[in-house]
Structures are given as structure tokens and as C-alpha cells.
Amino acid sequence: MTLTSMKNAALPQVLPLGDRVAVTSDEPGNNAVYEEYLRGFDDIPVLQDAIRIPPRRHPPPDFRRGERRDVRDVQRPDAYAVREVSQAELELLYHEYSQPAPAPAVRAKRKKIKKKQKRKTTKS
Q1: Residue 123 phi/psi, 5° resolution?
Q2: CA atoms within 13 A on the CB side of 80
Q3: Is residue 105 exposed (0-12), middle (13-18) or buried (19+ Cβ within 10 Å)?
Q4: What are the backbone angles phi and psi of residue 3, rounded to the nearest 5°?
Q5: b/e for 34-58, b at 16 or more Cβ within 10 A?
Q6: Of 70, 88, 95, 118, which has the fewest CB atoms closer than 10 Å, so is most exposed?
Q7: What does the DSSP 8-state code read for residue 9?
């Protein structure tokens, strides 16, 4: 068959047979291959298989609860302590902000500049 004749070829009809689906075709080898394809789905686990598996007796150890060694290079800070520190910093900044403006600095009075006296030139 050529590519163009394959595009226009009629697709085989699909007929349901119980819980299996069979393909009607003139070629006898297709049914055996399709049955093998369907048998492959019997090995795939489904939700009912997962329910039959008993749960673990003990959950895996968790380093956050101290059940196993923590391998972090730098320990993470406690979230509560970080929150308290940032709140204290904000309160300090707000306290500084709410204070009245400082009074302007008093500058020393200017010293009066003495005028230079003109030199009297002597007539010769």
C-alpha cells in the first residue's frame, strides 16, 4: 500500500466484547497481537492494588523532629525568633519616626570683620 492509499483506507470497525474490545479485520494476526496488548494491562497496578498494600509501621525518620542528623551546612534560624527580631527593629524605627523633629542647632554669632585701615602714604 502506498502512503496516499493508506490515508484513504477504511479503518477497521471496533466492537465491544464484554470487558474486552476486539478489532475486526481480515488479517488473523491482528487479534493475537491485540489480545497480548490487552493482557499487558493486567500487570499494571490499579488503586485497588494500592489499597491492599499494608501501610508502613513507622514513618520514615524526619530531621525536623530530631529523628535523624541534620546535614545542613548552615542551620536555619528559628522562624519565631526571626519574626520577633524584625518586629523589634520595626518598633524602634517607628519610635524614631514618631519623635518630634530635632531643634535646629544654634550657630555661633558671626564675628565682625574689621575693616582694613588704608595705609597712609607719606609724600616725599
Answers
A1: -85, 135
A2: 0
A3: exposed
A4: -65, -40
A5: eeeeeeeeeeeeeeeeeeeeeeeee
A6: 118
A7: S
Q: Give the separation between CA 34 and CA 22, rounded to whole angstroms.
A: 8
| Beta carbons of 17 and 8 less than 8 angstroms apart | no
What's the pTM?
A: 0.28
User: Hunting for cell 491492599 — which residue is that?
Assistant: 52
Q: pLDDT band at residue 3, thresholds of 50, 70 and 90?
A: very low
Closest CA relative to residue 33, chosen from 42, 19, 23, 18:
23
Q: Please state, in angstroms and rounded to a whole number, the distance separating the CA atoms of residues 88 and 51.
A: 52
Q: How many angstroms from the chain centroid is the CA of residue 31? A: 49
% residues pLDDT > 70 (the chain): 73
DSSP notation for 56-123:
PSSPPP-GGGTSS----SSPPPPHHHHHHHHHHHHHHHHHHHHSPPPPPPPPPPPPPPPPPPPPPPPP
